[in-house]
Amino acid sequence: DAIVVATKNNGKLKEFAHALGKLDKRVLSLHDFPEIPDIVEDGDTFAANARIKAKTTGDALGVPALADDSGLRVEALGGEPGVYSARYAGEGAADEENNAKLIRELTSIGASCSEQRLDDGSRQLSKAQFVCALALYDPATGEFVEAEGTVDGVITDKPHGAGGFGYDPLFWLPQLGRGMAELSKEEKGAISHRGDALRKLLPLLMKQQ
Ligand code: ITT
């Protein structure tokens, strides 16, 4: 039994494969359907972009598709990069370039959310929140099932850990005293925005069947 996740992001994909594998679902992605043209994500919100990706993919394939639009809201930057998180340092930017730009921007405005340094001496630059909007679209009915999840943390000026993807190395979890990239897949899934959104979506999917 397979489920199509409308993403090309391998970091997301690993987390979905892990979470959905528990339900005995094999996860297919846009890598499996190169015939689907690049999707233009021009929505103003995470939810709107998730719907665009799910609908484009579901309509193209004629089967239900699940999409994830996610990103980082940084308090000291007025909520940026938000829906632009993937292309913060430019279209097609690598995670490292986006992370470097984030530290540069926060340092240049002298951002600080705590006088307290972490044990390794790193500074706490700003409160931040990861957001994940999920949309499942069924082309047979034209309907969406949606859920959104968040997790709060702090952006540090030095990386912690080598796990996860994207902005994870800069995302510190004061409540755990660890960085997001220091967590195992299980630990990240238990507290992350994506895990939160998935836990909200799954009961809605069950109800639908
Ligand atoms: P798809 O649209 O193909 O799914 P994408 O990488 O373009 O892939 P988004 O437009 O949703 O996806 O952008 C999400 C960006 O937000 C992503 O590139 C990361 O930099 C960041 N992000 C999202 N979830 C994250 C997570 O769990 N950990 C770290 N960074 C995350």
Automatic annotation (TrEMBL):
Family matches, as Gene3D superfamilies: 3.90.950.10
Superkingdom of source: Bacteria
Keyword Manganese assigned: no
Binding residues for substrate: 7-12, 70, 165-168, 188, 193-194
GO aspect biological process, one term: purine nucleoside triphosphate catabolic process
A Pfam cross-reference name: Ham1p_like
Leading EC class: hydrolase
InterPro entries, per the entry: dITP/XTP_pyrophosphatase, ITPase-like_fam, RdgB/HAM1
KW Metal-binding (keyword) present: yes
Chain sites annotated for binding Mg(2+): 69
Keyword terms of this UniProt record: Hydrolase, Magnesium, Metal-binding, Nucleotide metabolism, Nucleotide-binding
GO CC, any one term: cytosol
EC number: 3.6.1.66
Description of how the protein assembles with itself and partners: Homodimer.
Family of this protein: Belongs to the HAM1 NTPase family.
Identification of the protein by name: dITP/XTP pyrophosphatase
Organism: Paenibacillus agaridevorans
